[in-house]
Amino acid sequence: MCPAERRAGFGSAPISYCGNGDVSDRAGEAVRRRRAKFRAWHRGMREVDLILGRFADAHLDGLGADDLASFEALLDVPDPEVLAWVLGEAPVPGERDTPLLRRLIAFHAGRGAAAQG
Question: Which residue from 42, 48, 69, 96 has the highest number of Cβ atoms inside 10 Å of its Cβ?
């Protein structure tokens, strides 16, 4: 237990977290991953739900902290913009052109090629 422990209730069991990199931090990161996966599947535009949700199912658990933060930031982008970037209908703005987004686009392109072949 960390000296300045803080508790946050999620569901029926409280989760402890503190900033010293211990097991409690990993529990907090697990909550972030579950939230991100839920948000990826429940955006509103079904096409983007499928693109982001499938990517999240396949890769979210293995993402590092920086890529997880990039994915969370991508979840704040409006659906039509994400869809246009992934389908190649619009250029990705420089500030949004991250390794994670390129990985997502490649993942989607690979699924499309597999479905056609």
Answer: 48
Q: Is residue 13 part of a domain?
A: no
How far apart CA 108 and CA 87 sit, in angstroms, is 9
| Residue 49 within any structural domain of the chain | yes
Residue 80 in domain: yes
Beta strands (DSSP E) in 13-115 are 13-17
Q: Convert the pLDDT of each residue in 7-48 to its tens digit.
A: 444 444 444 445 555 556 778 899 999 999 999 999 999 999
Total-model pTM: 0.74
C-alpha pair distances (Å), 8 with each of 2, 13, 63: 14, 9, 24
Beta-bridge mates of residue 12: none
Structural domains of the chain, count? 1
DSSP H or E run through 8: strand 6-10
